[in-house]
Amino acid sequence: MDRFGDVEAFLAIVERGNLSAAARHLGRSLQAVSRSLAALEKSVGVELVRRTTHKAQPTDAGYDFYRRVKPALLEIAEAKAEAGNRRAEPAGLLKIGGPELLGPRYLIPIVARFMETHPKVEVEFSLSNRFVDLVQEGLDLAIRIGELPDSDLKARRVGAMRRVVFGAPSYFVRHGRPHHPRELTEHQCIFRNTDRDAGAWQFQDGGKPLTVKVGGRLHLDNAAASHAAVAVGLGIGRVPLWQIQDLVDSGRVEVILEAFEQPAIPVHIIWPAARLPLAKTRLFIDFLAANLHMEQRNRDCIAI
């Protein structure tokens, strides 16, 4: 039996609970499955499965080995099928995570086009503003906005998003238009109390970081309400441009202080380092990057 078959037998033993069930599942003889397991254990140099008369239990080393080789075997099997033209079209379940606000506006339309292009792929989409544990949540990949902390995740940068200061023309008529970030201290500023930079807006002035303490009379805990408050002239806001692009396009708000913007916020796709992304996952990553690039050409809120 080849080494691929040995690993396949090992996985079946772990998943089926004993050698006999694994043999039936694989359509092999009990002796062949037993030889495959023995050959694999000899190759890696440790006991992977502890056998009894009716049960086969993975050892600690066996469980760790299973966790690493399972996704790799799936990838190899899919690659073999693709090479042999047995699966010309990607198929199966793709579990994706993404930010709650970004999902409906940008990600869902892209997912819809992806599913239309690949009708055999099923998608499960989880939208949340918290940084979820991909392995614990069972996600194949997730979209993250912002700098990534050090972790054991793999990542591919697929874009960046501007963070802008904006206000309604009616507000500027009544209160004037700030020309430098420091002038914001004299204006009504609107932000969510839960924002990371609530009351302390970050800029760049001459290539150097600048923090401006801002405040206002209106306090909100909802992003959409904050955008609406700025649009009706209650104050000045600061958000990622993609969140208010419709308001900008319609002329209800105007972007100001562009010369003082911080570098754009990176957007990444991340996936577990211990998991080789399957063909459908790699295909979606490429598809998402290309479609975000298309959005950037149509608008100025996302850049690749």
TrEMBL record:
CDD domains per record: PBP2_CrgA_like
Gene3D superfamilies: 3.40.190.290, Winged helix-like DNA-binding domain superfamily/Winged helix DNA-binding domain
Keywords for this protein: DNA-binding, Transcription, Transcription regulation
Keyword Transcription regulation attributed: yes
Any matching Pfam family: HTH_1
Family stated for the protein in its record: Belongs to the LysR transcriptional regulatory family.
Protein name: LysR family transcriptional regulator
Native source species: Mesorhizobium retamae
